[in-house]
Write a structure and sequence with these properties.
By secondary structure, this protein is an alpha/beta fold. About 25% of the residues lie in helices and about 25% in strands.
């Protein structure tokens, strides 16, 4: 970057101005009380995003039949609403008051109330209470979390092993959707929330249980180390859902990477670092924005325990730490994230991303052609790799942006090189290069801009790395 002229940094926006933002963050697992939310609210507000995913916690709320204790959830919802953020609620998990086999399960995780009529009715009443209580504050309600995973659907069995069952889930989701819409006809129901977003058979089977006309959106999660798979998954999901109902929205509800290699949870036992988490966050969210999802949610706000298979009374079974947070924390003897929360580099990268991609924009093809020129900066030529990713975006003010990076294997490779572009019919009177990881803004020197006449230019040997850069044309940054 030393060949460019650094002219400043992204001016971070206040969240109150970002009502149109399509970016969100997770605030999960407070149904199990695994972190102290009061220490995180201000940090979330300063990210500059709009959406916050929370989990409702039936077992924590209804500890005796028909008696609801919503104070803990009220506090979370109200804290975000007063900050002009929009919480959306994942309705989960089980409740030992109705389901005996949920009693030894930490947080009743993954124990669906589907066996007896009493369970089903207790769940419907609870759903009705939640949706009614937060009318005017919460629009989107998600039905369960990752039902296609054995930890999260502890009901069907095969030789004593939990087996996800799309027929069971499909019927459960359809019934829950009816309860949600009855309690608030304006509420939107999010179905599926699948972890295996590539498993079209599971999704299609669940949809065939009557979901097509009952859900308003489908959520999917992505934990794939190769970020180039993400747009493939989304494309396939969109095509499948369109077969049933093209009006169903797609929401990326959970995706993230860790900052340590010794963490538990998705993609564990890999050589993660703070730098790699930044790249995963930026690459993945840009894939989502380019695909046109309703919103994209990063997992998660704070480092916390995973506790997917925790057993009540046996603390050692759920002291398995995940380091997915934008904020780091220390842990007490019960695994609760405590101490002073500290922003990681990914926190600042998320701030940059949310500020740049605020307000109105749309993904689109731009009149940009990639070139391979001689490049003495790498003693050869510009990058010719097929792993280069790029996406175009436009605003209504006529400005545009091109996000680009070399998507080399995120765990085992880094990249530094150059790339050239031919550009036509864009506002080339004001070109900026933005490093989304650091927030630094650069002006491109005239010697790297070749005027080809008639408003066409060539950008010669500009930096290319494995972390997303953004070329902006005109006033895409809005306040530059």
């Amino acid at each position: 970057m030393e060949r460019l002229n650094r002219i400043g940094k992204i001016s971070l926006e206040n969240t109150a101005k970002n009502r149109a933002s399509r970016i969100g963050v997770g605030f999960e697992k407070l149904d199990r009380g695994v972190f102290e939310p009061e220490k995180a609210y201000d940090y979330v507000e300063k990210l500059g995003l709009h959406w916050v995913r929370i989990q409702s916690g039936w077992a924590r709320t209804e500890t005796e039949k028909g008696v609801y204790h919503f104070e803990w959830l009220d506090s979370i919802v109200d804290n975000f609403v007063k900050r002009n953020l929009e919480p959306w609620i994942c309705l989960c998990y089980g409740n030992p008051v109705y389901t005996p086999h949920a009693a030894p399960v930490f947080g009743a995780v993954g124990c669906p109330p589907i066996e007896t009529e009493e369970e089903k009715e207790g769940w419907r009443r609870y759903v009705t209470e939640v949706v009614t209580r937060y009318k005017g504050k919460v629009r989107y309600f998600e039905v369960w979390n990752e039902p296609d995973m054995k930890y999260s659907w502890k009901h069907s069995w095969d030789d004593g092993v939990h087996v996800p069952n799309p027929v069971e889930y499909g019927k459960f989701c359809a019934d829950t959707a009816d309860a949600i819409h009855a309690a608030n006809p304006e509420a939107k129901v999010i179905g599926l929330a699948v972890s295996h977003s590539y498993d079209l058979t599971y999704i299609s089977t669940a949809m065939q249980q009557g979901l097509a006309d009952k859900i308003d959106a489908m959520a999917f999660h992505v934990y794939a180390i190769d970020d180039r798979l993400r747009p493939v998954f989304i494309k396939n999901l969109r095509a499948l859902i369109d077969c049933y109902n093209p009006n169903i929205e797609l929401i990326q509800g959970e995706a993230g990477a860790q900052t340590r290699g010794d963490g538990a949870g998705a993609m564990h036992s890999c050589a993660w670092s703070e730098e790699k988490q930044v790249k995963y966050l930026l690459r993945g969210t840009i894939h989502d924005l380019a695909a046109g999802v309703t919103f994209s949610s990063y997992f998660t706000t704070v480092d916390m325990i995973e506790a997917q298979f925790g057993v009540v009374g046996h603390v050692n079974t759920y002291l398995d730490y995940g380091y997915f947070g934008l904020l780091s924390a220390s842990f007490d003897e019960n695994g609760v994230a405590t101490g002073t929360y500290k922003p990681k580099p990914s926190y600042y990268a998320m701030q940059n991303l949310c500020t740049v991609f605020r307000e109105d924009f749309e993904a689109c093809e731009l009149p940009v052609r990639r070139l391979v020129n001689p490049s003495r900066w790498v003693h050869a030529t510009d990058c010719a790799d097929t792993t280069v990713c790029s996406y175009g975006f436009r605003r209504k003010n006529g400005s545009a942006a091109l996000a680009y990076w070399n998507s080399v294997h995120i765990l085992s490779a880094t990249y530094g090189g150059t790339i050239s572009f031919e550009i036509a019919c864009l506002d080339v009177s004001k070109i900026r290069l933005v490093d989304l990881a650091t927030g630094d803004i650069y002006e491109i020197p005239e010697k790297m801009i070749l005027d080809k006449g008639n408003g066409c230019i060539e950008l010669v040997n500009i930096p290319l790395t494995d972390s997303p850069m953004l070329l902006t044309f005109g006033d895409f940054l809005l306040d530059d």
